[in-house]
Amino acid sequence: MSADPTQGLFFRDALLVDPEALRESRGHLLVEGGRIAAIGPDLTPPEGARVIDCAGRPLAPGIVDLGVKIGEPGERHRESFGTAGRAAAAGGVTTIIARPDTEPAIDTPEVLEFVTRRAAASAPVRIRHMAALTKGRAGREMTEIGFLLDAGAVAFTDCDRVVTDTKVLSRALAYARSLDALVIGHPQEPGLSKGAAATSGKFASLRGLPAVSPMAERMGLDRDIGLIEMTGARYHADQVTCARTLPALERAKRNGLRVTAGVSIHHLTLNEFDVGDYRTFFKLTPPLRAEEDRLAMVEAVASGLIDVICSMHTPADEESKRLPFEEAAAGAVGLETMLPAALRLHHAGQVGLARLFRAMSYAPAQLLGLEQGRLAAGAPADLVLFDPDVPFAMDRFALRSKSKNTPFDGQMMQGKVIATFVGGLCVFGEV
C-alpha cells in the first residue's frame, strides 16, 4: 500500500537494527519528508503522523544489493527493470546495483543514460548502474571511465569476464585511481576456470563433472592484489568463496591496500553437495564449494574480513537451465530469497542481525559512496520491516522475477518481509 512520502511515519516499538553502530535496540523511529527524522526509545508520534506498530519486530535499512543482473537491454525475456524492482521490493532490497553484462554492454555514457532512464521509469526501488571496465567487456581497451562517472556509473567491472591482459588491466586501474573510481574484479584464474562446472574434489570426480581447483580463485586474487599495490586503485573482489583466499585478503587489508571483498548469499548457505543429482539450479559461477569453505566464509562475514553480502541475482530462462549440467547456464535469482537465506545464519547463531545488515546494507552503500544503508537521523527512509521467525515453503513460481531459477525451491525457509519503504514510500506490503 502506497502512502504520501511527505506524510510523517512513526514506527512504534521496533527492534532497531543499526548496522553502522553494530547495535540492536528496542525503540521508535520517525520519518518526515522521506528521511529519518529521529530515533530513540522516548519518542512520541507527532500530530498527523501515521503510526505503524512494529510489535518488537526488526526494522533495518533497506538492502543495497551489489551485483544484480537485469536483462535490459538485450535479455528482457529473462528480467526487466519492472520485474526486478518488484522482486527487490518484496525481498527488502531498496537499492539495486545493476551489472553491465547486458547486450550491448553498458560501456558508453549513451547506454548508461538509456538504462538509467528506463530503470527510473519502471522500478519501485532505486537502481544504480555499474559500467564495463573495458569496451564490450572484451578485455582489450578500457572504457571512458571519466565520462561514465559523470553519467552516473558507481563502479567499473567486466563481471565474470576476467581481463587477461595484465597491461590493459594495470592501465585501467591506474586511470581509475586518478579519478578515485571503484573497480570490481572477479578473482579467478581464467585458464583454470574455463569450462568448470564444479569445485575439484571427490564429489566432482564421482559425478564426472569438469572441475576447477579453489586455487584458481586464490591465484586470481593474488594477481589483482599485486596490481592494486602497484597502482593504488580502489578494488572490490565481487565473490570470495574459498578458505584459501582469505589469508591473501587479510594481508592486503593489513598492508593498507584499498581492497574489499564480497560473497554471494548462495555461497554462504549452500555447498557442493547441494548439486545432488545434477540439479542445474545449483550451477553457479564460481561453483559451489566444500562445506569447510562455506563455514570459512560465514566466519569471515562475522569477523568483518568479508565486507559485503550480495544476491548475485542472475536470471536464466527455463530453456537455458533444462540442459545437461555442463551445458546449462550458470546463476540463480536471489533478490527475493536473499534476506530469508541470510536469516539462516542469524537463526544458527553464526551472524547477528546488525552484522548481517552491515554486510547487506551499510558496507555496500559506503563502498559506492551512497547515502543509503544507515539507520540514522538524516538518512533516506529506505527501510525494511520484517519478521525473522515466520516459516514458509519456498515456491519458485510465486517469485516476482521473470525467471524462476532459485536453488531454494521447495525448501523450508524462515523470515518474511512485512513492508519495504523507499524514501518513506511503502513499495511493498500492507501496513
From TrEMBL:
GO biological process: one example: pyrimidine nucleotide biosynthetic process
Pfam families: DHOase (PF12890)
Span of domain Dihydroorotase catalytic: 56-238
Keyword entries, A-Z: Pyrimidine biosynthesis
InterPro entries reported for this sequence: DHOase, DHOase/Allantoinase_Hydrolase, DHOase_cat, Metal-dep_hydrolase_composite, Metal_Hydrolase
Highest taxon in the source lineage: Bacteria
Keyword NADP: no
Listed GO CC annotations: cytoplasm
Gene Ontology molecular function terms on file: allantoinase activity; dihydroorotase activity; metal ion binding
Keyword set includes ATP-binding: no
Gene3D superfamilies: Metal-dependent hydrolases, Urease, subunit C, domain 1
PANTHER family tied to this protein: ALLANTOINASE
Annotated protein name in UniProt: Dihydroorotase
